[in-house]
Amino acid sequence: MANFYPGHSTVIILSTNRAYSRVVAELLVLAIPGLHVHTDSSYANIPLSSPNHCILLDVKTMPDPTRYGIKPKDYTAGWIAVNTATDDAQSIEWVEQGYSGVVHSGLGLELLPRAVSVVLAGDVWYSRGLLTEIVKRYQDQGFCPEVAANKFADEYSLTRKEHEVCKLMLHGLSNMQIADKSNVSINTVKTHISKVLNKLSIHSRNELMSLAMSSD
């Protein structure tokens, strides 16, 4: 598997099913050389500031983190909900809660390394159809990506390229889609995204969308 993740990355598997955690840990270590993997059955040990981290939450066995005041969108780590139901409405709730990806139950474990790699690279792991539906819902509520991007560009002194990337993110495009549309490399896109998030003092696309919605 190609390296889609930053160096020295760590995955934390949250599950009370030890057999599941062990199998997933072994799969990730084999698929992504150099990756550090930890398993835990408690939310107590998750650092709030944890760059280059990805958290896999086994929703079948772990309690809802919001019961403990834990909101994924408050963390610098990317959260992936695994073993979720194949329900688009529920998936949209995961997005709104700040998760960077969802892996439905029944899809098999072979998708997990790819999902983890994509999230560690700063992208999101959702189907294109789901992202389109989310953007459509926002637009139906009067949300306009162009207006929000223009406002951010003015308030946070975004460059022309950063402004364009910001707008495309608000349209729901992935890193690769932004690279194709802008005719630049994916590494250049990642650099622009990082600068946009830093200027806005946020950590993820989900926070970007939330900020855009709240200020629209």
Explain what this protein looks like in three dimensions.
With 216 residues, this protein is an alpha/beta fold. The protein has two domains: 10-126, Response regulator (Rossmann fold, 3-Layer(aba) Sandwich); 134-215, Winged helix-like DNA-binding domain superfamily/Winged helix DNA-binding domain (Arc Repressor Mutant, subunit A, Orthogonal Bundle). The chain is 47% helix and 12% strand. The protein is built from nine helices and five strands. The chain has helices at 18-31, 88-97, 112-120, 128-140, 145-156, 160-170, 175-182, 186-199, 205-215, and strands at residues 10-14, 36-40, 53-58, 78-84, 101-104. The protein has a five-stranded parallel sheet with strand order 2-1-3-4-5, with helices on both faces. Helix 5 (145-156) runs antiparallel to helix 6, helix 6 crosses helix 8 and helix 7 (175-182) crosses helix 8. The chain is globular. The termini are far apart. Residues 1-5 have low confidence and may be disordered.
SSE topology:
Blueprint: E1 10-14, H1 18-31, E2 36-40, E3 53-58, E4 78-84, H2 88-97, E5 101-104, H3 112-120, H4 128-140, H5 145-156, H6 160-170, H7 175-182, H8 186-199, H9 205-215
Parallel strand pairs: 1-2, 1-3, 3-4, 4-5
Helix pairs in contact: 5-6, 6-8, 7-8
Core attributes:
Arc Repressor Mutant, subunit A; Rossmann fold; alpha/beta; 216 residues; disordered N terminus; 2 domains
